[in-house]
Amino acid sequence: MIKKEEVYKIGQFNKPHGIHGELLFTFTDDIFDRVEAEFVICNMDGILVPFFIEEYRFRSDTSAIMKLEGVETSEQARRFTGIEVFFPVKHAGQTPDEELTWDYFRGFRMEEIHHGTLGEIIHVDTSTINTLFIVNHNGEELLIPAQDSFIVDIDRQHRVITTDLPEGLLSLDTAETE
Fold it and tell me: For residue 15, what are the β-bridge partners?
């Protein structure tokens, strides 16, 4: 059985494409540029199920047309509409020198050495020079700077980032949300 901590989200199937079981796939991680992927994992009614890729072709920088083995008609493909697509963490960085994208960290748990678990990273904002982890903390969004000086440890196996944040950073975020 595939466990949630063994995978990370790379995108979503949007809708069938054509009549031969192809699917429009929108991705948030460029994993297909970095590794040779033979399969993807789909969240089918709460169960993570692997599906082998028959073929895929890029449509843009963020979308592709994908054909899964065993999906032969548009009716079969329709059951994948809106399905989240995942990839195994252990295959994401196959070589030690390989660069990971920021999206790799989505779904990681963020911990702070003085405050414990802060929550799950739901997004990484790279729109400014200061990259920010956006953490879901009890329904509120915490903005945590993604700086080497604040990161104590990254446990890729358990998908946990441990930080040592400057005093007052968390209380500033709390004051802004009140």
Answer: 24
CB atoms within 10 A of CB 10: 25
CATH assignment at residue 75: 2.40.30.60
> Tell me: the pLDDT tens digits for 102-154?
777 888 999 999 889 999 999 888 888 888 999 998 888 999 998 888 988 88
97 assigned to some structural domain: no
Q: Which of 73, 92, 111 is the last residue of a domain?
A: 92
Judge whether 164 and 173 are in contact, CB under 8 Å: no
Closest CA to 13 of 5, 22, 4: 22
In SS3 terms, 28-74 reads as CCCHHHHCCCCEEEEEECCEEEEEEEEEEEECCCCEEEEEECCCCCH
Phi-psi region of 162 (alpha: psi -120 to 50; beta: other; left: phi over 0): beta
Q: Please indicate, yes or no, whether residues 48 and 124 belong to a single structural domain of this protein.
A: no
Per the structure, how many domains does the chain have?
Answer: 2
Q: Which of 150, 149, 143, 135 is nearest to 175 (CA)?
A: 143
> Within this chain, do residues 71 and 41 fall inside the same structural domain, yes or no?
yes
What's this model's pTM, rounded to 2 decimal places?
A: 0.55
Does the residue 165 lie in any domain? yes
